[in-house]
Amino acid sequence: MELKGKVALITGAAAGIGLAYSEELLKQGAKVSLCDIESDIGEQVADELGSKYGRKNVLFCQCDVTDYPQYEEAFEMTIKVFNRLDIVVNNAGVMNDRFWELEVDVNLLCACAANFIILSSKLTSHDLIKLIPKDSESAGPDLPKYE
């Protein structure tokens, strides 16, 4: 897939795998909407990536993926600023079984919410990238895994 000129929305984009996805997509010529709950870190990362890859190619949306209206607003802001949305990376994740309800909200329901937002929108072009852990038993033969 040619990424030059494509627009990606990435959750959990201020650090870790989300940041790596953001930087790689920018290197390939895509525009990136960084979505993260951590606004201070997110703004800083957006400034750094904007300086490196062009400020017009980077947007930061403070977003708690468990807050549906806020998550939907991140999609709307991305489309408003970049005029399109081609790629969604559901990367936000929580691993703490003491807070299993939060795990379900972030790790499962936000992916469902993203699907609903995309399907109910008037997007004309999009690819939905789903990340499923390598050892996940829920991964099917047609679903990509990351290592």
From TrEMBL:
Taxonomic lineage of the native organism: Eukaryota, Metazoa, Ecdysozoa, Arthropoda, Hexapoda
Catalyses which reaction(s): 14-hydroxy-(4Z,7Z,10Z,12E,16Z,19Z)-docosahexaenoate + NAD(+) = 14-oxo-(4Z,7Z,10Z,12E,16Z,19Z)-docosahexaenoate + NADH + H(+); (11R)-hydroxy-(5Z,8Z,12E,14Z)-eicosatetraenoate + NAD(+) = 11-oxo-(5Z,8Z,12E,14Z)-eicosatetraenoate + NADH + H(+); resolvin D1 + NAD(+) = 17-oxoresolvin D1 + NADH + H(+); prostaglandin E2 + NAD(+) = 15-oxoprostaglandin E2 + NADH + H(+)
Gene: jg15646
EC number: 1.1.1.141, 1.1.1.232
Name of this chain's protein: 15-hydroxyprostaglandin dehydrogenase [NAD(+)]
Family to which the UniProt record says this protein belongs: Belongs to the short-chain dehydrogenases/reductases (SDR) family.
Record keywords, A-Z: Oxidoreductase
InterPro entries: NAD(P)-bd_dom_sf, SDR_fam
Coiled coil: none
